[in-house]
Design brief:
globular; Na/Gal_symport; MFS_2; mainly alpha; two-stranded antiparallel ribbon; MFS_trans_sf
Length: about 475
Amino acid sequence: MGQNAGLNTTGTVAANAEVRKFGMRDKIGYMFGDWGNDFFFILVSSFLMVFYTDVYHISPALVGTLFLVARLWDAVADVTWGRFIDSRKAGIKGKFRPWIFKMSFPLVISGVLMFVHIPGMSTGFYAAYAFVTYILWGTLYSTVNIPYGSMASVITSDPVERTTLSTFRSLGGALAGLIINVGGPLILFVNNKADANHFIMGAIIFGILSLACYMACYKLSTERIVVPETEKAKGNLGQTIKGFGKNKPLIWILVASLIFLVCFMLVGTVNVYLFKDYFGNAKALSMVGLIQTVTLIIAMPMVKPLVGKFGKKELTSVGLLLAIVVYALLYFLPNLSATQFIGVLAVGMFGFSFFNLVIWAFVTDVIDYHEHVTGLREDGTVYSLYSFARKVGQAIAGGIGGYAIASSGYDVTRKIQTKGTLDGIHTLGTLVPAVILLLVFLILVFLYPLNKKRTIQLTSDLAENRKRSN
């Protein structure tokens, strides 16, 4: 059948509506959404701190404070926007897609503004400008990312298809990472130093590419699952919060994701200083970015069959364990060259790539579980709570990253950092992620309850509940 009738939340045919069958077009469209997101997200997480410290000459500790404050604000913005989205009716273009179209333009403009450098201004001016533009960008990011993330649960209700959406979303992020992490060091640094003119040029290039990706996401994606307004359970914030308390899978995936993101962003921040100062080769970051993307692409075709055989929880736990071993090994090998370090690190990247590929499928599972325990379908609110946790993780990572670099004794005025500083940076880039990833592993194995068997049962139970409610 070339066209499928529109689906409501029961997965049955809805009257008077025809919607294209779920397929590769949806996967590609959803991939473009995160590709657009991550052009600036990865640029910011990997290179904004070094721009602030080496171009604006803001102290790392103050940058850490900025990241902490801004991300805590963003976390509130995420939940606020999620509740707002859930209060809106679905239009002819869907409930979530129109917001991606409307808000992507101001988001990209604000992203470029973050990297504007006006020569000759005081450090106080640069600090104030950084606070205003970074917080503005983060707020606008919520207006695009919340509807984008929520949209996965209404593109399809099938758990396997949702896993493929998660995989393609991760591919979009990986492609952005490939361009930013490989091309970024080549564009942004001149003679191993951050260059203001090259940073703004890079921001404009990445901004144009980001906008093109958002438009592709809007054009190619289709929302299929619609809860008719007359049949929606009318909940209030109190009911929603009570439901969150019953949703143990949500609670533990929030905690695990928050901690993982702290690790991922901390490593991204520290790696710039690790390769620029410890190894004396900032451009080697391009190779790190390339290998990270290659390992994820290698893992991609393995995800669907492995999840089908073992389950999401089981697969990601094994991958994390591999990454833990690699980071611990790197800590005990301080005399490796940059090339040797990257070669060993590649194995760890392959390990944690499975978590990155599957995490968004975890989120759709906990959205379903929320409906199971509350009877309320609140995709935007649940996703925004997950995004809230991620923003808290980003806040913690940004603060810790800045404070950790500062505590290592990093001094931007030095051409060569002290041995104590370099050793501290090496520890931040190896032992610390090993410990953090171990904590994520323990949470998934012992506390997150949705293994393969329980996830399959959840899908079956939801289908039955929806049929009875009709």
